Amino acid sequence: MISAIKSSPNFKWWVFGTIAIGTFLSVVDHGSVLVALPNIERHFGSNLPSVQWIVVGYALAISVLILPMGRLGDIIGRKQVYIGGMVIFVVAAALAGVSPNLGSLIAAKIFQGVGSAMVQSAGIAMVITSFPGTERGKALGTHLSVVGAGAIAGPAIGGLLVSAFEWRSVFFANVPVGIFTIFISMLILPLDKPEPVAEGEARQRFDWGGAVFSGLALLGFLLVVGNGDRLGWTSGLIVSGAIATVLVSAAFVWWELHFPTPMLDLSLFKRKLVSFGVAAGWFSFMGSSASRFMMPFYMQRVLELSPREVGLLLIPPAMCMVLLGPISGRWSDRFGSRGLTVGGLTVSAVAWVIMATSLTEFSPILLIVVLLMAQSAGTALFNSPNNSSILSAVERSQYGVVSALTQLVRNSANVTSIAIATTVVVATMGARGVEPSLDAVNPDVAEAFVAGLKWAFWMMAGLLLVGIILSALRGGRPKPEPAAKPESIAGRPASE
């Protein structure tokens, strides 16, 4: 049966479906854990800042390791990295479920983040190598819909598990699904081989120095940005951390320019589709991610909606991502990426301008949901075409590390967006004589909070404008790859 599947003209979709299970599991796990945090806090008699390290530690592990793991997959084979990551993910989930204290639970989630970094970096690379270049956008867009579906299902599944059983079930639920994913992956996924080294080129070996320097630089950046508002941007700890991050980043660049087989080939950024595409992606997420963090505060603490109502109202924007992701990917395969990326960011920017000019303490909830849907639709129109154009400009031997780079851009921009928007909001609140803290948000200080929120939306619209300019300047439609080249079908061309 397996041999029949591998010889099927639809084998690329079997590969996609296998990877999609792992992707869906990872996204659902994140949403489920967020729902379980209050129960975990009560169980261990802890406080929210300590419990949040369950999520923060997991996210840091992914961000720090995703780039090295992407490159490792390019060198030793992506199937090995993907399955190894799923094994770590499942083992860590079981350890999290039996954790006797909060410290061991946080450690288990950090360990699980290692597995997630391996799964995410290798998974997308295997998806795009299973499809011909003329269908890359379709593959990325459909993968985006899986992520969106997982984001919708995660909180619902987590709430159901916590209500029916207890918080440990959120982690235990990953075990049987993860084992099934490992089994299917071993059977279905092709044993890909690293690209052959051209005559005269150095033999590919893993860049440990680049991995260490990049990991330290990213860890420093994320810790500085994530704690700047709380500790104060001019505090000694933040300033010294920023200086150390800059120095380590400089060391990373120097090392990559001198190492024979660098983890991230910096010469790729001489290509406009890569450099402008990565930069546009950064500004896109910088100009959108903070809304997903800020709007629940507005909806719960200003409009006084219940958490359940807020959750339901945020489903339509997420559905825009699910439905439009595959469509935008297919359009980019046919018409190129520039029009979609510019158009998508324009839709998002217009939504934020309307939000910044019309938001009040009494705004109709229908208006809020429609604007959030418009912004989400703009992101869906932008994301798949942008990533497809970036990957169209790099060699197949670089797919793992470059696809990991696109995800790293998203993760780091998310953290930065939230940090900057929070600073803008609390600074405005402080200037109006209100306690400069999101914890202080309630109907009595709604006017000051909304004023800060409007400035944050103006800032995000400005960041999206930079993304629009970069997308417009980066170049036209790339030439599609020939359909017969994809490596993923074990020595046989991928079918159209």
Please characterize this protein's 3D structure.
By secondary structure, the protein is mainly alpha-helical. Helices cover 76% and strands 0% of the residues. It is built from 19 helices and no strands. The two termini are 22 Å apart. Residues 479-496 have low confidence and may be disordered.
Main beta-sheet annotation: none
CATH topology of the largest domain: Growth Hormone, Chain: A
Which architecture name of the largest domain does CATH use?
Up-down Bundle
Strand content: under 5%
3D shape: globular
**Count of helix runs:** 19
What is the string of helix and strand elements? HHHHHHHHHHHHHHHHHHH
Poorly predicted runs of 5 or more residues: 479-496
Total discrete domains = 3
CATH C-level class of the largest domain = Mainly Alpha
What is the element layout, followed by pairings?
Blueprint: H1 2-6, H2 11-44, H3 48-51, H4 53-76, H5 78-97, H6 102-130, H7 136-164, H8 168-172, H9 174-188, H10 208-231, H11 236-258, H12 272-286, H13 289-302, H14 307-313, H15 315-335, H16 338-358, H17 365-392, H18 399-431, H19 446-473
